[in-house]
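wait is this the right file?? whatever heres the structure
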């Protein structure tokens, strides 16, 4: 005798009435589809808009830091700041690079500045309100800088508590702003150590190309040393892939290695390479206003949401 066919098995339940089948199918349809993978190869989380704020103050101070030049520190400072300001946060940008690119990128002329961050660092009588200028973006101010700041690095060496100088300068601003972003110069010298000492968090922008990964170990050692010796509250808020080209295998491999090395510290948001950033610098304004609906502007708005989830609204 042949074995009974499966549909003839006596233990098999009778088929469900059509209404029940439809109901079950509806339930199956309601299960969310698996989250789409983001450019970093991890599922992209839902990022809510930053929580509206009714009162300003108790700013989180965040440094943009990488000793490698041209990786997007200044671009990220301007555009993350502008995106956070769009979401209603009161933002202060600190140009802490003697190249003054942040100030120039917001349309200031380096030769026409009467007072800069240099005066605040070196002259105890100068008050922060005298140096702060509007950035052109509503809700975002700027502490400008120019080449004078390079002298501070030399002069500060002789000061007592030289590493805490910027922290003292910014102390009075913390109560007025929600976020203070410090644009560091491409070095790990005394100015950068001052920025890290004054900060609650650090964001490391990294260009998505192979050599970008070199030198990151040294940066991590510096951050660890500042945290151990000068500023125990310092955290790495995130590592940001910049100038990403998703069409190349190379770019994707670099992101993969970043995630292997830094895990969840790597932001899900990645900034793609586009000439719009250079164009907006020439125009002296953030990409969020220069090309408001561009992918670059959207990327920095998404980064603002991710930063809010990680360390502002947490
Ligand atoms: N995502 C991007 N796509 C294309 N160009 C970019 C991007 N981000 C920045 N740039 C351009 O790359 C150049 C370097 O960027 P940026 O000045 O932000 O780097 P940086 O790390 O601040 O440099 P430095 O170390 O000299 O201060 C600028 O001309 C900028 O306009
Ligand atoms: Mg810069």
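ok assuming it is, sequence goes like this
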């Amino acid at each position: 005798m042949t074995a009974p066919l499966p549909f003839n098995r006596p233990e098999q339940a009778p088929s469900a009435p059509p209404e029940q089948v439809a109901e079950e199918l509806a339930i199956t349809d309601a299960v969310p589809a698996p989250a789409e993978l983001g450019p970093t190869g991890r599922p992209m989380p839902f990022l809510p808009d930053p929580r509206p704020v009714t009162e300003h103050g108790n700013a989180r101070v965040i440094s943009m830091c990488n000793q490698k030049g041209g990786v997007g520190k200044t671009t990220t400072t301007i555009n993350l700041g502008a995106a956070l300001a769009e979401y209603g946060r009161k933002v202060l940008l600190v140009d802490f690079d003697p190249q003054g690119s942040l100030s120039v990128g917001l349309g200031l002329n380096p030769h026409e500045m009467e007072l800069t961050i240099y005066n605040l660092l070196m002259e105890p009588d100068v008050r922060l309100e005298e140096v702060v200028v509007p950035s052109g973006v509503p809700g975002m101010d700027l502490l400008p800088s120019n080449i004078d700041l390079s002298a501070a690095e030399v002069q500060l060496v002789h000061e007592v508590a030289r590493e805490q100088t910027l922290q003292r300068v910014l102390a009075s601003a913390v109560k007025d702003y929600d976020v203070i972003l410090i644009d560091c110069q491409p070095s790990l010298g005394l100015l950068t150590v001052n920025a890290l000492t004054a900060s609650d968090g650090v964001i490391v922008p990294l260009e998505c190309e192979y050599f970008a990964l070199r030198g990151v170990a040294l940066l991590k050692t510096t951050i660890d040393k500042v945290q151990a010796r000068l500023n125990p509250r310092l955290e790495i808020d995130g590592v940001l892939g910049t100038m990403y080209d998703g069409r190349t295998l190379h770019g994707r491999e670099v992101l993969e290695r970043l995630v292997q090395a830094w895990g969840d510290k790597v932001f899900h948001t990645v900034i793609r390479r586009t000439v719009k950033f250079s164009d907006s610098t020439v125009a002296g304004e953030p990409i969020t206003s220069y090309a408001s609906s561009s992918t670059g502007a959207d990327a920095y708005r998404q980064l603002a949401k991710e930063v809010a989830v990680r360390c502002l609204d947490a």
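The chain has 13 helices and eight strands. so i think its the right one actually
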